[in-house]
Write the structure tokens for this entry.
Amino acid sequence: MSAAERTGDPVADNELAAFFSDLQSFRRVLLAVSGGPDSTALLLLAQRWRKARKTGPELIAATVDHRLRKESKAEAEAVARLARRIGVAHDILVWSGKKPESGLQEAAREARYTLLVRLARKREADAIVTAHTLDDQAETLLMRLAHGSGLAGLGGIRTRSERDGIALLRPLLGVPKARLVATVQKAGIPYVEDPTNVDPRFLRPRLRRYAAVFAEAGLTPGRLALVARRLARA
């Protein structure tokens, strides 16, 4: 683990090319920005990377308002204001209709990607970019272990995949969440803390409670992500 990973240093400008080089081959990309610290950092860093280049893809940001909390509309509008302020176009997408009583997180995820793909086609975007982090990868591996996943599932989140013909890119998958939080805080940008991230009804938040215990045993996010990469190669 590097010093930056240990201390949660903000992401530096000289790291951006390595993170976003894959975006260069696309004409237009859609950034999925919820308003949380990870995706807010994605918006800031991608815009910083693109601004420093003479050529590159057009950036468009999108926020999905799931309408699951009364604050969600205002949070989406705050992301829209930030995007406009830094010169990035922005769309708000609404998950309307009745919500399921069970499997809510899975249904919300499916609705989110459906709306993003639909917007990508409308905007003629070649790719959708999400802000999955090293911590997300580690948690995903643990969740899939808990569910008894096979080798393919234990390969975790891929840096690049596809959905309905649209590329899905995750350029920050190797970056610890703490560094993205530090990046947004250094920029003085407020962000949303989604209460479902600590809701014990869901498995992922329950696993986060034991992160320190796992790390003490050597199961750090970096080590778990390394296992996922090796299983993906296998």
Notes: Strands lie at 28-32, 58-65, 89-94, 127-129, 160-163, 166-169. The chain has eleven helices and six strands.
